[in-house]
Structures are given as structure tokens and as C-alpha cells.
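ARCHIVE CARD
SHELF: 3
SLOT: left
DATA:
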Amino acid sequence: MNAKAQAGATGLDTIRLAVAAVLLGAGIYGFYHFATYSTLLRVVGLLAVSAVAAAVALQTEQGRRLWQFTGSARTEVRKVVWPTRQETLQTTLVVIVMVFILGIILWLFDMVLMAILRFLTGQEG
């Protein structure tokens, strides 16, 4: 009995997802079809249709799981200890300096290799 209920819910979920996809496609089509109208009106219409499509998609099992995942992700982001502005600035400066130093080292290495190749091929003036 439970397997049949899940199968019915899965079929209904598929229909809901298809309706959401069709709504989203229709919104995008309408955005370009009504190109003569104001861009503001077209964007508002597209956002409205997208919101309805999202509401329909969130009614499915996959949509509910996505909503729970999003809530859990936001909770985890709040738990993160973010670096201060000073720490971020110092780390960025260290990275920039290291990239500059590595660039100079690679440039010198390239110069030495080119000098050796010129000497070996007899192209040195």
C-alpha cells in the first residue's frame, strides 16, 4: 500500500516539475516575445512567472528536500568563523607578494634557459 502511495506521489511530482519547467520556459519565451514592451515590465513578468514556477517545484518531494538543504546550508554558514578584515587584507597581500616573487623566479629561470639554448645552438652574438 505504501509503495503505491509513493509511486502516485512520484508521478504527481513529475507532473509538478514538468509544469514548473513549462512555466519557466513560457516566462522566458514571453520575455523575448514581448520585446517591444518596457524592459522593466518584462523583467517583472519574468520574475513573477519564475516565482510561481519555483512555488510549484517546491511542492514536490525534491523541492522540499532542496528547501531543507538550503536551510541547513544557511545554518552552517552562520556557524563559520569568518576572518576579520585585517586578516583578509594580510592574507591577500601575502598571496600577491608570493605571486610576484614566484614570477621573478620563473622569469630568471627562463632567462638562464634561453642563454643556455642560445649558447648550445650557436645563436649568441
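SLOT: right
DATA:
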Amino acid sequence: MKTLLLLLLAHSLFISGCSTITAGGAEITGLSLLNDRRSRDAILADEAIEDNAGAKLNAYYDLRDKCHFNITAYNGAVLVTGEAPKEEFRSRIIDIVRVIPNVKLVHNKLTIAQPSPFNFRANDTLITGRVKTALTQIPGFDASWVKVITEKSTVYLMGLVHRNEGAAAIDAARHQSDVNQIITVFEYID
């Protein structure tokens, strides 16, 4: 059945020449709509949260220049990672994110530290890639169900998953090199 849906979707995209839906500046591919467990509206709301947070935070030169932050939204839950050199900056970042429309919950994982150097961030990107690849190897698991974020070798896993799927994702991440810690920000659907 899923194969038939994919073929129909691919055929309709080919005929129409349209491969994405654009709404409010956010683009959603047909495949992400088909596989994502969030509703279309939730996906768009998450994109808007991330865009809005980035714009608001980057408007403050002191935050933009002295801090390193990443904002990841999934089904209204927002994960804030990175570094702020002072508690004052950390609190301001969280306060700004907390009042953005459609934010249900904020997971504050900002550390009080100087912004991480480029080589740390490059290593984090490699770790994220390895974890995402490992997720594609789990039988019966769709890697699009989980967002992977890595900060200072700590892997954060976000998504709408069943408990057994979450356990499989954790196990896959655990076996990747350079992973120091795994923190789950799952929303369980069972």
C-alpha cells in the first residue's frame, strides 16, 4: 500500500512539475508529508517557530555575537542547544523562545560557556550524519520519524515515536563513535 502511495505521489509530482508545497515561506516535500507523523499544520508551525526564533534572537547583536545557539522545533516542543557566556544571555534566549507562538514546551540545554569552536561543530555534524545513517539501517524504522541534533558530542533525539522505536533509535545512536551522551526529547505515541 505504501509503495502504491509513493508511486502515485511521484507520478503526480512528475506530471504537475511540482515537488514542494510552499506555505508561509516554509517548504514541505511530498515525501516528508507522507512519512512524517506530524500533521502538515504541525510541520509548518515548527518551521515557523524555528524561523521566528532565529530572526528574533539574531536581532540582538549581543546574543548573536557572543552566543552560539540552535533552535529545533518538533511538534511544538523546542530544543535550545549551544553556549552562552553568562546566565543573563542564557535566560534572555530562553525567555525569547518561550513566547513565540505555538511553542508548547522549551527544553533548555544551553550551557554557560564560550561558544564552541568550529572543529567541535564540524565533529558534531559528522556524528549527526553517522546517527542518521544508523537510523536508516533499523528494520521497519523510518529515519524521518526522528530529528537528530548533536552539540559537543551529546546527541539529542526528537520525534513522535513508539517506545520500542525510541529504544531502537537510542541503541543505534549509542553505537556511533564519538557519542558521549544521548538525551531523548521524544513524544511517545503509545
